[in-house]
Design a protein that fits this description.
Blueprint: E1 3-10, E2 19-25, E3 29-37, H1 44-62, H2 70-91, E4 100-108, E5 111-117, E6 121-126, E7 129-133, H3 139-145, E8 176-177, E9 181-182, E10 188-192, H4 194-197, H5 202-211, H6 214-229, E11 236-243, H7 252-255, E12 263-267, H8 281-297
Antiparallel strand pairs: 1-11, 1-12, 2-3, 3-4, 4-5, 5-8, 5-9, 6-7, 6-10, 10-11
Helix pairs in contact: 1-2, 1-8, 2-8, 5-6
Length: 303
């Protein structure tokens, strides 16, 4: 199956952007990452950057060109990012460990697997509606689950910004995994930080995704999200992937309304399933150590 992917991140009304979004791919697999550094803790942008670099670095090391055990990869890569963030905090003698939320998705053999921590979300849209989305690890989501708050309060309730799960810190993240989901023609996976998804209902997203190519759809949604959030709006990050042929491009005069700051990756059909030599536990541990060592040498301090 062919895929079209577009990603973009904007700082919104904030002085800096603590979100990070990225992807990597081989002939047989795609890995997508979105991380939202937590502003209530020091250097959230460092935590988000380290998570993105560790996860994509491990994917590039282990996908040969396939991932043998995708569930293990999702768990190992996020835990490795957690350890790397904590090592960074220790080396720099920080009083508060940087933290981030995240969502990570791998596509292989026409299926998608994803993992998330916190309130960064993944939406899985079919042609006719929302098929599923991740459940936030937040105080307001817990109140909704217990019947103590309504879904309409998710953006206004006093507990809306309280998260009980993150990558980085003294407590291991509780990584929530999806089962493998078979992808169909025309379906869309959309990963987003809370600065973006808080401005929309799912049917609003789908209405735009149905009409425009993935690049134009994401940019139009970002424009609306920034307008709705106003001058105090949060960072906004989106990564969207359409399965199969993309929508036809709109007329050129429509494009002038969009900033088009991100970039599109169009992937031809991924390769047929082929065998690959299994990596030993030693090989995997060595790959993680090499990635962590390289990252911790980088100057990620604030200027």
């Amino acid at each position: 199956m062919k895929y079209s992917l577009y990603q973009e991140s904007r700082k919104g009304g904030r002085k800096s952007n603590q979100d990070r979004v990225g992807h990597a791919y081989t002939t047989d697999a795609i890995c997508m990452v979105l991380a939202d550094g937590m502003g209530g803790h020091a250097r959230g942008e460092v935590a988000a950057q380290l998570l993105q670099d560790v996860v994509l670095g491990m994917f590039e090391k282990l996908a040969r060109p396939r991932i043998n055990d995708i569930v293990a990869f999702l768990l190992d890569s996020v835990y490795a990012a957690h350890d790397t963030i904590n090592q960074y905090a220790s080396q720099h003698r920080l009083n508060d460990t940087p933290r981030t939320t995240c969502v990570v998705c791998v596509i292989q053999d026409g299926q998608a697997w994803w993992a998330h921590v916190g309130d960064s979300r993944l939406y899985h849209f079919g042609p006719d509606g929302l098929l599923t989305r991740t459940r936030d690890h937040s105080a307001i989501q817990h109140l909704i689950d217990e019947g103590l708050a309504s879904a309409d309060e998710i953006n206004t309730h006093p507990e809306r910004n309280k998260l009980y799960n993150s990558v980085g810190g003294f407590i291991l993240p509780n990584i929530e995994l999806s089962p493998g989901v078979l992808l169909g023609e025309g379906e869309v996976l959309l990963m987003a930080s809370d600065g973006f998804w808080s401005q929309f209902q799912p049917d609003e997203m789908l209405a735009t995704l149905r009409v425009y190519p993935i690049r134009q759809a994401v940019n139009q949604l970002l424009e609306h999200a920034e307008f709705r959030a106003g001058e105090q709006g949060d960072n906004l990050s989106v990564l969207a992937l359409r399965c199969g042929e993309d929508r036809p491009a709109a007329k050129n005069d429509t494009l002038s309304d969009f900033k088009l700051e991100g970039f599109t990756t169009e992937l031809r059909a991924l390769g047929d399933k082929i065998g690959q030599p299994a990596m030993s536990d030693h090989d995997i541990d060595q790959a993680i150590e090499e990635i962590q060592a390289a990252l911790l040498k980088h100057k990620l301090d604030k200027p």
